[in-house]
Amino acid sequence: MTDTSSPAADQEQRARHTAARFREVYGTEPTGVWAAPGRVNLIGEHTDYNDGFVMPLALPHTTLAAAAPRTDGVLRVHSGDSGGDGQIAELRLDALRPASDGGWAGYPAGIAWALREAGLPVGGADLHYDSTVPVGAGLSSSAALEVVTALALDDLYGLGLTRQRLARLAQRAENAFVGVPCGIMDQTAAACCTEGHALFLDTRDLSQRQVPFDLAGEGLRLLVVDTRVKHELGDGAYAQRRAMCERGARALGVRALREVRYAHLPEALDRLAAQGDARGDGPGDTPGAGGPGVRAVVRHVVTENRRVEDVIARLDAGETRAIGPLLTAGHASLRDDFQVSCAELDLAVETACAAGALGARMTGGGFGGSAVVLAEEAGADTVAARVTEAFAAAGHTAPRIFPAVPSAGARRLV
Ligand code: ADP
Ligand code: MG
Q: What are the φ and ψ backbone dihedral angles of 308, each rounded to 5 degrees?
């Protein structure tokens, strides 16, 4: 069923609670409390490492950090959430090394490391976290954790970082310190999104635009369906898809697939078909890895970038309902061409559409995680109920379904 409790409404109370927990954990007063949100990507999937377009929005779900500076060069972190282990992790700033700590503390430690690597005057700090962002659901709890840490340190040490710079440093922390090869979308969403908007981001030049996305005003609801599964396949498949995209770009003589315009797609596909070594659509062309061939991944990336542009055009024209079919077409492309969906995601999308949703797609990397569903406000509960029933009938774990209200990016609360 739809969880209609609003995580935003009780933000103030949560800030007080987080500050109180900080006092219990560290026995001192926090200087302030900061928040950064989780996100869903509305459209633009697997385009970020092709220099393409993405369009995330911030969720009302946030990670809060209460923090105070320290003068002894020590970073202490504590989390009240399932992502953490309940212990205080204590790290010396001058001893931080990439991948020196495999646990959750690597995310905040990576932020301190990345800021110092950039030559910024960051000292020690005590941090306590409290989060409502589902962990590991493809809603980017990791970027929320990184960005709230970066914002707290930015404020505590008067660094004056722009939101874009903060996002890039957070990405560097995740890439180089934690060791996860993520793109720039998640951190940018957590840092830069604004209430009532989706964020259009061009991952080549990092230019961005806030696109009005007034769901409530239009009588619409965007649902997130967290399938609560994560299939093992994920990591290897991500590397394989990335490699195929690079092969496609090389074969077409472009730096990244973003340069292939939609109007030139048929021609590009013909060219790939004519190049035996880059055709890649037969099983023999991707030894050992399986997955889609070069032509299929090129088709996905080029059409997906086009769908992002189409969604923006529809939203700018005030035709919010018209984005529904574009979302569903995006799902088909991820399922059939890019081959990163799974039974649970397909079931969520098919059931939602059959139950009257305007459109639906998997969101995030795939092989589990979450789907987004655009529905009429009046029919949204029915859509959610049908999806829950279908999961039960198929013997899947019950999904977690909640509304994605386009919310604010990172900010100081207290
Ligand atoms: P996602 O970003 O999709 O939620 P990731 O695997 O990228 O999933 O990041 C999840 C990891 O981030 C967790 O395993 C944990 O290490 C860390 N994490 C996220 N939020 C918190 C939190 N509130 N407290 C402690 N660790 C967290
Ligand atoms: Mg993550």
A: -60, -45
